[in-house]
């Protein structure tokens, strides 16, 4: 499998996971259960009625804008990325925005600060930085050391909390590992993630270290443990589902991926079945599985239907990936 297939699998895998989870966002697991057999057979229309099937959200929109910036600049330029994020809000195109992202981008739009200072302060550890980090994993797939620094720079546009940044690093490092290595070894990946994340957030690193045990557990027991990782009494979810807090989001995505790394359908369906903030978790899971298995592992009928208000679908991602290979990686 060549690099092109894996990079395209990463970005389209994220978009398909995102669009598949979007209609079920915020639902408890028991309400999602009747749909599990059909989730990845075809997209369903969002219950709000405003979006056509296959619509993806801010998770993929912001990841997409990072990719476009990298291709245009042939480098990673956080200032340019911040401008592209601003345009999503200025053009009223953002879908499903999180509070920290919205407040941070509005600070930039209102000229209150630069991108270095716009991010939400410590204590705000949502999954908004992690959800878009796959793009940096692609850019720095051969350079894990610069990857860490670049992820933190891009994260700071909306998030300064160490947990949020560490979660983004874990996502990007997983993508980079899958693109870089010819043979997938889950124990090696867990070690890489632990060593990389522990320098930023020891709490998340210790949870990552527990993944081999979690994978062997009964699913219901593992999900209950993951859903409450790092969560204080005030933050506890109403049911055992995934909140927008970065630690459970990243761990559930890694757990689901490592349970069946070669099967895109099983990975994404498992993540969505958990309930809660399943759009972001499914987007990250889809990127993980797509980066390992390539574009042809993703259901073709879904690939052709991903869109952002009828635009920026498969053909767009195919074009960006080709430009990345030719102009950024010079291959």
TrEMBL record:
Residues engaged in binding Mg(2+): 57-59, 277, 280
InterPro entries named among the record's database cross-references: ADP-ribosylglycohydrolase, Ribosyl_crysJ1, Ribosyl_crysJ1_sf
One term of GO molecular function: metal ion binding
Cofactor note: Binds 2 magnesium ions per subunit.
Presence of keyword Magnesium: yes
Required co-factors: Mg(2+)
Superkingdom of the organism of origin: Bacteria
Keyword set, alphabetical order: Magnesium, Metal-binding
PANTHER family: ADP-RIBOSYLGLYCOHYDROLASE (PTHR16222), ADP-RIBOSYLGLYCOHYDROLASE-RELATED (PTHR16222:SF12)
Protein name listed in UniProt: ADP-ribosylglycohydrolase
């Amino acid at each position: 499998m060549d690099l092109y297939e894996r990079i395209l699998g990463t970005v389209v895998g994220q978009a398909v996971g995102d669009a598949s989870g979007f209609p079920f966002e915020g639902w408890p697991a028991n309400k999602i259960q009747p749909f599990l057999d059909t989730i990845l057979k075809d997209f369903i229309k969002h219950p709000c009625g405003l979006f056509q099937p296959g619509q993806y959200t801010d998770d993929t929109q912001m990841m997409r804008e990072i990719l476009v910036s990298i291709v245009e600049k042939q480098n990673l330029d956080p200032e340019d990325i911040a401008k592209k994020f601003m345009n999503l809000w200025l053009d009223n195109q953002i879908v499903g925005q999180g509070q920290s992202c919205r407040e941070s981008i509005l600070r930039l739009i209102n000229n209150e600060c630069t991108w270095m200072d716009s991010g939400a302060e410590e204590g705000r550890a949502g999954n908004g930085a992690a959800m878009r980090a796959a793009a940096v994993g692609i850019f720095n797939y051969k350079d894990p050391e610069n990857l860490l620094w670049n992820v933190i720079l891009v994260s700071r546009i909306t998030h300064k909390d160490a947990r949020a940044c560490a979660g983004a690093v874990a996502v990007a490092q997983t993508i980079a590992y899958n693109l870089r290595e010819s043979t997938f070894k889950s124990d090696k990946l867990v070690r890489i993630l632990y060593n990389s994340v522990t320098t930023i957030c020891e709490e998340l690193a210790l949870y990552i270290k527990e993944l081999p045990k979690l994978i062997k557990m009964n699913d219901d027991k593992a999900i209950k443990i993951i859903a409450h990782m790092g969560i204080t009494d005030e933050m506890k979810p109403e049911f055992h589902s995934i909140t927008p807090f970065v630690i459970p989001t990243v761990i559930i995505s890694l757990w689901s991926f490592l349970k069946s790394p070669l099967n895109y359908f099983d990975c994404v369906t498992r993540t969505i079945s958990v309930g809660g903030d399943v759009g972001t978790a499914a987007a990250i899971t889809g990127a993980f599985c797509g980066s390992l298995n390539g574009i042809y592992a993703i259901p073709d009928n879904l690939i052709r239907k991903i869109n952002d208000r009828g635009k920026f679908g498969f053909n767009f991602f195919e074009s960006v990936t080709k430009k990345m290979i030719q102009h950024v990686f010079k291959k």
